[in-house]
Each structure stands twice: as structure tokens, then as C-alpha cells.
Amino acid sequence: MADPGTLSAFWDDVKSYLDVAIEVTEDTSSNSGTPLLLDFTVTNTAQPNDERPDIIFEEVLLKVGIPPAWKETLAKNLAGGYLFKYRYTCGYADLKKVQYNLSGKLAPVSLLGFRQKSKFIPATPTLTAAAYRGFLNESNINKWVDDIFKKVTVPGPGTTAAEVETVKAKLKEAEQDVAGVRKILIGLFGFVKTNDKIRAYEMIVDEYLRFVEEGCVLLSYSLSHPSRYSDIAEERDTIIVRLAEKMTRLKAAEALL
């Protein structure tokens, strides 16, 4: 802590007067493709003090967005106890990417100014399970069964090496897509108000996605080794059956939410 009598201490105090509260909720009234509402409330918390002048921010600039695409709102003459609000909308997949920062000037302009480092949105559990399900619906996690696994065939005498590599590339791309969905879901889950049923549902979803990843890895490995070609049909069919069973469990858990 700096000496209270130094400019550094005053500088730290100035930056601390601006409080940013963020509430993340779901927009149930629209199908705009941005189902999450991020409501920012910026408050000048400075209280009157006989030992110093009133702290009035001549300008406060709030920037919110996914860099480098920022949206800005400017408040002027923000006195102690006053606030301003700003609403930002985004999709489920973008929630953990959103950042915000403040910059401001004290009155008079020439006295002091500051700029804060950009911050990510803190994970506060304010969303319902509907947000989690909403992202799953957007992601269509059952798509890999039809789009990838059912299209994997056993290489035959007329199959070229290039054709095998094309299938392997699609399996690798699917594996990476699943990993990306899992990462977003883990981040999104931190914003969801949980209970035992929601946690059980989240575990079943993650188990399903991990099995998709494992299926991609297994089939890619078999396609890389001609001695395993005879196993591919059985491996593929087993993966499809197991995923159907896991999807049934997932739907049953979802019905309990």
C-alpha cells in the first residue's frame, strides 16, 4: 500500500471509485441470434469528504466487446453516487470472449485521467439451465453421428490414399469441433445456477462429447493402419449405437430439469 500522502495513493483511490456491476441474463423475447443480455452498471461510489474536493468524472468511457470489435458508451459529469447503464448482447459461444474496460477523466480535464486494463466477464451464476440447453441446441451435438460416423466406410481395393486422408481430416476436424464445444460449455456452466439435476445433466453431456472425441480418434487410428481396416465397420457401428444410448440418457436427464 502506498503512503496515503502520495499521488500514487490518490491515483489508486480515483480508479477504485468507479464500480462496475455486470448481470448476465437470457433474452426470452427474441430470436435475434444473441440470446444473452449483459447489463453493465457503472457507479461513481465516491462519497462527500471534507478533506478533499468532490470526485466528479467529467468523462467515463465504457468499452465492451470481443477485441478488436468494441462498442462504446460515454457518460459525462458523473458525480458521486450517480451511475449509468449499458446493455451488450451476445451469443452463448461468445460469452467467455467478451471483455470490457473503463477510461475516465476527472474534472477539470487537465487534472487526471486513467485507463483500466481490459477484463473478462466474471462467471457469476445468474443464468438458468435454458441457456445451457440453448447452446447445446445451437451446437447440434448429435450432428457428428450423421455427418461423420455414418459416412466412414471401409477402404477397399479401389480406395486411394488421398480419399483415406480426406476422411481422416474430417475426423480430425470433428474432434477439434467437439473440443471447442466442450470448452465453451465448461465456461458457460460457470454462469448457470446449478443444482444436483443440472450437474448430473452436465456430466452426461460431457460424457457424450468425450465419447465423440474418442470415436474420432479410434477411427482415424484404424484408417492409418491397413491391418485394422477389417475392424472399422464394427468400430463405427459400435460408436453409433453407444452414442444413441448416451443421447437417450441425455434426453432423459434434460426432461428432469
Write a concise keyword list for the protein shown above:
single chain; 257 residues; alpha+beta; Immunoglobulin-like; elongated
Describe the protein in words:
The protein is of the alpha+beta class and 257 residues long. The protein folds into two domains: 114 residues, Sandwich (Immunoglobulin-like); 127 residues. It is built from six helices and eight strands. The strands form two sheets. Strands 3, 4, 6, 7 and 8 form a five-stranded antiparallel sheet that branches. Strands 1-2-5 form a three-stranded antiparallel sheet. The longest helix has 29 residues. The mean pLDDT is 89.
Brief description of this entry?
By secondary structure, this protein is of the alpha+beta class. It contains six helices and eight strands, in the order αββββββββααααα. The strands form two sheets. Strands 3, 4, 6, 7 and 8 form a five-stranded antiparallel sheet that branches. It has a three-stranded antiparallel sheet with strand order 1-2-5.
